[in-house]
Amino acid sequence: MIKVxxxxxxxxxxxxxxxxxxxxxxxxxxxxxxxxxxILPELFxxxxxCDIYDKVAENxxxxxxxxxxxxxxxKFKANLIGGSFVRREDDGTIKNTCPVFDRNGNIIATYDxxxxxxxxxxxxxxxxxxGEKPVxxxxxxxxxxxxxxxxxxxPEIYRCYAFGGADILVNVAAWPKSRKLHWETLSRARAIENxxxxxxxxxxxxxxxxxxxxxxxxxxxxxxxxIASLNDEETVLTAEFDLTxxxxxxxxxxxxxxxxxxYTLEV
Length: 267
Prior knowledge:
alpha/beta, 7 helices, 29% strand
């Protein structure tokens, strides 16, 4: 069995110190949980607000956020998906990056958000640069396909992971409360269509000026059934699942292997 801890939190906008302290407090009671995997939400250290990207960006080689995440992984002896942070490359380029750590606190993968949300007043495309490729993190519990927030609307990346051998699909997000139906439907669809475990993790609570994140983090089975879920509270969600369930389903129901090599529309 794989044991997962999911941190659902309301980030303090622009205050890394306060958000590090909140994560530490929320996880305090789980030191002896023997977790295999800990997952944080998108931009947990700074909150979701695109206009502050330049101010809060960090180079991965000298990052308070990376050091904080590495310490958690080592403390809990768990694999860790560190939500995401605003990363500044050596050439000044800014990306929304999801880092993954092994149980010894070493970075084993980074994924740059491929689809930037730039509608309804958000300006992620003006304040950062999109990633160019999907990434599977190779961990001691299995292969994990990484996505961030708006990526969930693009099934192509999840299909890439399914056929690339991913055992678990993960989306870390700061998802808006106004689109609850979309979050729940898309999360469940990604699990069902790829016959994969799907873990969807979102920030919760107010961002600013009456705009809220949704929460409603969840762990879904390859059949789209809810293994564990939250509403909008700040807390840690625990879940356990066995990858054997996914493998047995794929043996019995050949949806993935029934795919055509290509679909060509004649018009």
